[in-house]
Amino acid sequence: MVDTALLWIGLLVLVVVAGIGVAAWQFATTGERPLRPLAIAAAAFAGVFQLGQANGYFRPTAAAVLTAACLLLAVGLIVMEFRSDE
């Protein structure tokens, strides 16, 4: 039997890697700061910590702190993106 939690964690890790890859590609081609793909990667990374905690891979306190840090980073990146558009 396949542990579906590991599949979802793997899918979220793939989203994180893709977000970082898109950000690197966008920075290399345009020279602009790619904040949206990095915010998506940070939010997906928060999901990795939450799924890992729910399935016993991370301790609850560590997962909560890391999830909060990732979500704060994602919100901060989006705020920076909207401020730079003005």
UniProtKB/TrEMBL annotation:
TM stretches of this protein: 6-28, 58-80
Keywords for the protein's UniProt record, in alphabetical order: Membrane, Transmembrane, Transmembrane helix
Keyword check for Transmembrane: yes
The protein's name: Integral membrane protein
